[in-house]
Amino acid sequence: MVTRLDAALTADPARVLARLFVPGHELVVKTESRATGVLARILALSEPDVRRTLDVVLARYTGRHRDLDGVLAEHYAQVAHRVPDGGALTPARRTLIGAWFTHEYAIEGAALFNPSVVPHPDQSGLPSGHLRFVLSLRAVGEGHVSSVEFRTGVLGSGHELSLADPGRHVESGRPGPAVHDRALFAALLAEGGSDAESASFLMGRLPARFDEAELEQAIAALVGQRVTRQGGAHTEELARRIARCSYEVEFSPRSALAERVLWPHGPSDAQGMEDARFVRVASDDGSATYRATYTAFDGNRIAIQMIETTDFGRFRMSQLAGPAAKNKGMAFFPRKIGGRYVALSRWDRENNAIATSTDGRWWGDPRTVHVPTRPWELTQTGNCGSPVETDKGWLVLTHGVGPMREYSIGALLLDLEDPSRVIGALREPLMSPEDDERDGYVPNVVYSCGALLHGDRLLLPYGASDASVRFAVVDVPLLLERLAADGPPATMREKSSA
């Protein structure tokens, strides 16, 4: 049923972002900035030394970044408040200060893995039977910070697969504030422990959709009544955090899709954006939006958040709420069922469940549909991306964890109209790590965050032990036959009575 392809991606440490660097803040422990002392030493340099040093910097680094001058100017602006009489500095000295407060971050320096795949928005210029796709990847660099990368490629009419050159540069786009939804915001306040009285007061002063300025006006009103609202201080702090967790990122049209990196910008994902599960979602009017869930990590806690884009040039990151939007591994269905949004959830850390939503943002009580019963999945099970619609049912790739913490890929088949009903479940794994896939950052793992149906084939990109991204093609008719033959899994009660 599965044909492994020769194509593979491995981490490239030459893919670097030019990030702000504040001396003293590079340590994990809480430390004081050394900016003042560093700036004093830079300001003491003679002008000829400034010019010579800057010439060396530009010669060594300009080719590694599309707009290094712009980056250095931006980083100077962020520390300019520490520069005495900055207006009197020469442009060269200001640029050099920007360089001293910049470092290169190798986004793939540690690992590259856990892909998902969707159809590319542009399918023009392809031969018959070919499909252009967008691949999302989890990249991990210094400090184990995860970001989301992209690649593009074409799947041919057979098993031919080609990957486009990703380009010389990478960039993280320009972040900005987002517009907020009042109902979702209220749910997040409740989940965060805000007292009902303060939350109601705050939400009552906001329209259905509001921006940062309108939120600050409402918070100011709440602060004015803090004497009689003891929970107001916590609600104020929580509201600002929730607002910062939702943001937008826009990329320059000069950048290619594969040069764009979604870098953490909010407090909830400050230490990583993990395992994005992208899917193309059809809207009621026939248009399409690309949505993904990802695991946001702030250094202590995880949260499920959503990415939305229509063109992979502008992205919106936002939080999700509700009991099903917990833990890791949530994945959206590509369309509504019975007028409701539907998602896979692993809210309890061990089982696959189905959840629904009226607005796609608050997810109600999940209904468990698959528990680990086979030896290769007894530790836990979960999904390997969004369900794929076939004429026989919803095809769900799963992951299972067995002895020696070995990850394998399995499959479920769910009813098209009632996805809480399991039609079939593979008794044996669809894929397990082969000998040349077992060694890596996390050994003995094959894992995917999403596959793509093309005709009667399923393109399945997968991470191999967090050391590389590989590709397989699955014969869908054969897989559906096997799922029908294996049938639904026995319940624990049936197994014990047998």
Automatic annotation (TrEMBL):
Record keyword Transcription present: no
Species: Pseudonocardia aurantiaca
A Pfam family hit: Glyco_hydro_130
Signal peptide location: none
Listed InterPro entries: Glyco_hydro_beta-prop_sf (IPR023296), Mannoside_phosphorylase (IPR007184)
Protein name: Glycoside hydrolase family 130 protein
Domain of life: Bacteria
Entry annotated with the keyword Transferase: yes
CDD domains noted in UniProt: GH130
The entry's keywords: Glycosyltransferase, Hydrolase, Transferase
Family note: Belongs to the glycosyl hydrolase 130 family.
GO molecular function: hydrolase activity
